[in-house]
Amino acid sequence: MSHPMNECSDIGTVYLVGAGPGDPDLLTLRAARLVMNAKILVHDGLVDPSILELARQGTRMISVAKRRAHHTMPQEEINALLIREALAGHDVVRLKGGDPFIFGRGGEEAEACRAAGVPVEVVPGISAAMGAAAAAQIPLTHREGASIVTFVAGQCKGLTEQDWVGLAGKDRTLVIYMGVKTAPQIAEKLMADGLAPDVPVAVVENAARSDMRVLRTALAGLPDLVIRAKVKSPALIIIGDVTAREDSVLAAVALEAIP
Ligand code: SAH
Predict the structure, then answer these.
(1) Is 63 helix (H, G, I), strand (E, B) or coil?
(2) Does domain 14-123 have CATH number 3.40.50.300?
(3) Distance CA 209, CA 95 (A)
(4) 175 CB within 6 A, ligand 1
(5) pTM
């Protein structure tokens, strides 16, 4: 490969690698090379199995997604695992869904590694927003519809206290990650902030995967849509006029088709 893994130092390198939204074709070349050459690969639950299959036989695959009682491994344990392996002289490929630095806690892992004297390289990935936008043909910006785009987390502590005023509305696109469960509170919050109930919304479930669904509604109908269509994570909620452009409408599943 063009950048050989760190073989001469006593300490291994931790590669924080973005796996994109699911389709292996959406990996960067750098990410694909690192996965294919990995000796130790640490991954979370969002990484599509077809990407893990690119690893060669004999790669130590460590899932930090789900353990007993479906609890994810605490972040401190993940940090400790990466550091332990690197200090033992192993390069570690830490594969994350989408981009490591967009709601992926990549920042925390990079900080912990650096604090422990472990070299880190970050490989960007296609974040869910870009993957979903492309697959559903929803342009996140458009000269006739949106000159601002914002990514927010919909499942944070204190969602009601977060200030989203002005992030959605005319000429802007709001992309909400992790918002399926909190969809009713999100719709309520945005309307309380003054957003019109008829602002168009798209929900993109399993973006860039074979089972992708694109559902459209108006803001006021979002909670009902999530229930009726049984929307499951991972899904993104995209709010703004760009979701109602002709291309995205053609790419959407008609809500009437849902029983
Ligand atoms: N680092 C990731 C985001 C991790 S947070 C990235 O850059 O994409 C997890 C959230 O990302 C999910 O709750 C969902 O909102 C979104 N997400 C990730 N993959 C997705 C996919 N294939 N389709 C739709 N949403 C996705």
Answers:
(1) strand
(2) no
(3) 18
(4) no
(5) 0.91
